[in-house]
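Hi Prof. W.,

I finally got the Helix-turn-helix transcriptional regulator prediction working! I wasn't sure whether to trim anything, so I left the full sequence exactly as given:
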Amino acid sequence: MVTAGRPGAYVCGIDAAMDLIGGKWKVLILWALNERPCRFGELRRELPGVTEKVLASHLREMESDGLVHREAYDEVPPRVEYSLTPRGVSLNEALEPLGAWGRANVLGGPPPAGRAPEDDQAPLVAGAG
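And this is what came out:
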C-alpha cells in the first residue's frame, strides 16, 4: 500500500514511519485500538483532551494510510467501529520497544524485560570503583 505522504522524499524509514504517526494523538489511537475495536465515542473517552474534530481527522488519515479499519453497520441507530488493520497491528508491535524505553527512562518504571537496570554509580569493570 502506498501512503500519500508529504511532498519530497523521505530521508529514512524512521522519517516515513513518523509521518504516519506524527502528532500527539495518533499513537494513542493506535494504543487504544490495540486493546479492542472501539466506537468513536469510546475512543473519545479513552483519550481525554482530544477534540472531536482532531479525532475524526486522525481516524480518516489513519484509515487512508491503511492503519485503521472503519466498519459501518447497517443498523438503526447507525453504528461505526474502528479497529486496527494488520498494518496497524504491525506498527503497534514496532512501537512496543519505544513504549518500554519511555516507561524505563521517562516514567521511571521497570526496565524492559531481560534488561538490567542502569546504575550511574556502578563501576563499569567488576572490582573497580
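The chain has five helices and three strands. Does that look reasonable to you?

Thanks,
D.
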